[in-house]
Each structure stands twice: as structure tokens, then as C-alpha cells.
């Protein structure tokens, strides 16, 4: 059997703003059927990377492909096969959840019956409940996040991008989000989970890429990262990778 191509393929991907390098030659290949974590502090390059994948930014160098589609040369096709959730996304206050979902289903060419069937599936998975018939202006934070996620996956995207999606959620909404992410693994589908919160990565991610200063420091399963750094926890592994990177950067600067 021929192996399936990776759902995410990055080759020397970089983004520069004048003299500042936000993303520095990242090369990465990620298969479907998993939750893949992007772990790093604020400013690590995570959001820049995800905005390139979402076709919102143009890379300065290198290439990125999502589901075999080049993000620069085929942006419209890429947008059809991704869903995006971040902590700052809003919803139209006057529309109900059902109206919002029907509106987005129409963007992807789903007819009314298809949209209703998909909404029923998402209601069962996310427990949308009264969000469907309540105007978004009346939502709690948890209700808003549920509809935001449902909106992002209404077309059943091959790649779902979650960028600090748990940011600002209360404990119950955060729990519902993590449970849904863990249950959403399927062959041929990929969830990119970007966060700076170690416990979220430890709970839901199958493999992890560690980013710092725009550079990819390491990628692998959590046991692989622990073994590589001789660490007992993912947090320890992260700090050891950062320390090693900073020492390497200082050594390189002295060698010039």
C-alpha cells in the first residue's frame, strides 16, 4: 500500500519583517490522523507560521503545502481544506448559532440539507445545545468558543488550526475544548494545536514541535523529546532545548 502524503509539508520556511526574522528556515513534515502540537512562548513564531498556513501571510522564503496544496500558489484551494480557530475570533452578535453555521456552510458550497445534517453531527460532538437558537451577542465565553469551533469545521476540513484556542476560556469551556480535540483524531485529518501551555500539549498532542526565536528546535513524540534532553517532564525538556539553542547562537556569534 502506498503511504499517504503528509498533510503538512514545510521546507526552509521563513518570514522576515525588515531586519527582524519571525520564522527562520523551518522544515517539517506532518502526517494526518493526529493532534500535532506547536509549543513555544509568545514570540516564538507559532502564530506567524499558522498565519502563513492559513494564507493570511506570504512567506519571505521557502515553501509550505497543506494537504498537498501550495499556500502561495494555490491559496483559494488551501482555504477550502482548512479550518482556523484562535483566541480572538468574533461572531456576528445578531445571528443565532444556527444562522452563523448555515452562513459558513454556504461559503463551502453545502446545501441547506447538507448543512443541517452537519450541524446535527456537530451538535452531538460539541453539545451545541441552546447556542443554535440563541443570538451570539448573548453567549457566554464557552458558548462562543463552541460555535467558533463548529464554524471552523463545518466543511469537515482536512487540517484544523487551533491557535491558542483555549486562551481566555473558563475551566469548563477549556475542558470541553480539550476533550473535543482529543476525540477529533481521524485518519486523513490533522489538528495543529498551538499553545504555550505545557499541560495542554501533554494531554492532547501525539507529536510536538518546539519553536523558539522563530527556529524549530526539536520535533517528535513526548517520550522522544524527554529522551533527547534527558528530562523528566516536557517543561524541563523545553527549557533544556531553549538553553541549548541559546548557547549555540552565542557560540555562532563568537565564531564570526
TrEMBL record:
EC identifiers of the protein: 3.6.3.25
PROSITE patterns linked to this entry: ABC_TRANSPORTER_2 (PS50893)
GO molecular function terms listed in the Swiss-Prot or TrEMBL record: ATP binding; ATP hydrolysis activity
Sorted UniProt keywords: ATP-binding, Hydrolase, Nucleotide-binding, Transport
ABC transporter domain ranges (all copies): 8-238
Residues that span the membrane, as ranges: none
Matches recorded under Gene3D superfamilies: P-loop containing nucleotide triphosphate hydrolases (3.40.50.300)
Protein family membership: Belongs to the ABC transporter superfamily.
Protein name stated in the entry: Sulfate-transporting ATPase
Organism per entry: Deinococcus proteolyticus (strain ATCC 35074 / DSM 20540 / JCM 6276 / NBRC 101906 / NCIMB 13154 / VKM Ac-1939 / CCM 2703 / MRP)
